[in-house]
Amino acid sequence: MPWGEQIPPAKVVAAHLHPNKRIRLGAVMGGDHWFRYDNKGNSATRFADTAREVQPYLRGQASDHWAKGPLPDTKSP
Q: 8 pLDDT exceeds 80?
């Protein structure tokens, strides 16, 4: 955190990161992408349906992102 607070990795949530440092699977450079679960299938399948939609992006983009390490702090306030 900007004020020096150390947060254990298991407790980090998206709100702890500046938006420019958050991975956005499926987004083109500088864009945004959302995986919706509120409008899929029925209440019994919507989370599994969304997970299936996310999987190809995890295989194709997440490993590369994590291998690069932290993003440069170019736009944070």
A: yes
How many domains would you assign to the chain? 1
Amino acid at 61: Q
What would the pLDDT profile of 60-75 be if each residue is shown by its tens digit? 777 777 777 665 554 4
Amino acid in position 66: W
The residue segments making up the domain with residue 32 are 9-61
- Residue 19 lies inside a defined structural domain of this protein: yes
Do the Cβ atoms of 25 and 62 come closer than 8 Å? Answer: yes
Residue 67 belongs to a domain: no
